[in-house]
Write a structure and sequence with these properties.
Helix content: 10-25%
Number of strands: 50
Number of helices: 12
Strand content: 25-35%
Structural class: alpha+beta
Length: about 850
Amino acid sequence: MPTQRGCGTGGHLFLALILGVTLCLTTHGLDYDNTPRWTTWIQDLRDYTQFRQTVSNSTTFWLEEQQKVLYVGARNAIFALNTNNINDQSMKMIRWEAIPAKTKDCLNKHGQGFENCHNYIRFLRRFNGTHLYACGTYAFLPHCAYVDIKRFTLSAPFEGKDSCPYDPTVGYTGVVADNKIYTATLYGFQGRQADIKKSFDGRLLKMDDSVLWKAPNFIDSMLLRESVQSSVGDDDKIYVFFTEKLGDENAFNGKPLVSLVARVCKNDEGGSRTLQKRWTSFLKTRIVCSIPEYDFHFNILKSIFVFNQKTWQNTIIYGVFGSQWQNVQISAVCQYTIADIRKAFEGPYKEVQESARWWARYTGAVPTPRPGSCITDAFKKAGVKTSRDLPDDVLEFVKKRTLMDEEVRPVGGRPLVTKKLVSYTKMVVDTVTALDDKQYRVMFIGTADGWIHKVVHVGARSYAIEEMQVYKEPQPVESLVLVGDQSQRTLIVGAQSGVIQVAVSSCHKYRSCLDCIMGRDPYCGWDGESCQEVQLQKDRTGLIQDIVNGNKGCLKSKAYVLIKTVPKDVDLFLSCPLSSNTAAVLWTFGGKDLPGGSEPRYQLDGKLLVVRQVQAGDAGRYHCHARENGLVYPVASYDVRVGLRLMSTIREIIYLFLIAALGVATVVLSVLCIYLCCSSARRGKSRIHLTAASGMELQNVAGLAAGKGEEEEAGRYSGERFLKIIPGEGAAVGNHLSSTSAMVDLLPPPPPPPPPLPLAPDPATAGATPNGLAGLPHVLRKMNGNSYVLLRQAGDVETISSHYHSFTEELSKMLEKRKHAQLVDKLDESSV
């Protein structure tokens, strides 16, 4: 690679070259970094359709535009999709999987779980009026088959080792012309046999063994009908694009790559003695995409797009390139004409100088007819009707000299598009007639992370209109086609995860006249109120567009003024809400541009203005303007008011007090809620705890079943309706109550107390007590039906003492009797 000029020292050190190239591209960023003006995320895309199938690798496309059908080759399947809506019910599918025996054999050779042991469809083209021709890797044993278009069925597959690669990851390309299959790939199980082959009438034509391939990677191919309206009776040709490694090592830190285009004649049949069953027309030449003033080369060809005009002489080829420079990710698109490619193949040859072992221009005599040429009318007049009639000296010449001396250089000598920090993969080109009745070419370029860059070519320059995210998960865009007429133009994208369809234009996203005009989008025009799709408007007289300049047609706009109050000694942040990625932000305050060199407190962080430690003098009107396409327009204005720090402190104290008050109120309410919840659960019952040092009176709550004797017994006392616990005996009673879990109901106002139990059993009332028990001593009070407690009534110590010693025996008898008695319906928790 030649040394670098214009930037850097031009030395051979790899690091120096990297730094030099980066510096050159940075200092001339507008020319060498086409930043998309608008960013559209996947959630903001309208008319977004995803083909929902559980297959992967939907990357092989064949479009039948007139039938409005897109054929898609995927892993183990072939689909026929409606281009109007790829996800409608008219979809058809053919399952084409490798038989289990072949899959098992592939797994045994490559290891369990080998992902490539499937049938990846790599070739899908129309073969004739009724059938497609399809080839797949078929678990590392390539097979091909014919697809009946009408019935959409698959014929019996047959072995296709000479038409398809074994490995689904290697480069591959092919075309079909007049029932002949032209393919180029790495053939064989190990993928080491690089070749360009022609299959026809059961025969095979391939490269001569003298051609030494150096790790080629086949990118794409095209058929050009150069026989149509040819004044010399020329033959059609197949052009194959690929990359190879050079033999020398240099600043690439390894063997550099070079991009080439090869050419063969469609009707080549090989030689009669020399080059039997070998190409007699194979020639190749280098295709260049570079920035000449810096001698910076984009040497890795990624893909091509053939832009067909009305005649083949006006065919345009677009190439997507990347750079081999490590640590410098940059992509480019270069444009070529078929005339320049033909001129290179008609120029001088190269040959290897044995002394220097280097390719140099061949300056010797060239035999007639010209080696590597197709059979023309002039050849036929000279008796050379087919390639088998070519003289041996012509064939020997072309065996040794397949490389041409002239390189194919891009139109204008430089790339149409360059983009840093992005890896381009695929592209398609559309032609749009704008309001000025001129046609503009719009490029849709896929990236390695699932985005589409939309670029318009205007004169000698290109403008990136928009970048669209079409896949949520980053993945390379591997296939692109444009479908539909100008009024319903859509883009279909293929990648590993599936197929999606999006509209080529989304004018609704432009909310203002300036955005609509400055976008330079040929699909869009401003009607005075909104941005409209030009192709959908029958009356276009009121629409405004400016593709060339991108700054004319809109009235002066005004920015809304926002009031912003900030305290003193804090940082102020003011945003400039720009929708454009290419506009420059301009801030002004008091008629002066910000940030100023004399005032370091003003800092610009992208679209954000930061004012450090705001002071009283910073109050006033701040204006944000955008500069774009030679036009300066307002975006936002702020009326900043600076408050006193004292007032701010007082305000903060008030805020803290309110927060604290709310916190306390929250705690109190929480405690109250917990208390209420707990008290509601315990409502109606209360546990009594007695201490030895205190006396206590209890209201008489004797059982309702008391007899008349109890009333008489109660008359002997002082007439009080309270029971008194004598100090000194409270401990014993309390312990007795606690151990037996005695509970006293808390009732709203209590009913009149019933009379106490009689002192001795009364035969008349023996069976009247609950559970069939006879009356007990009055010291044994019934509580809630089944619970009993021994209480001493005030003023009758002697009576209580007389019954106290027999209490245990009586209670034991009573409890023993209860075992055989029928219990009441509602029992208390316990009985003592």
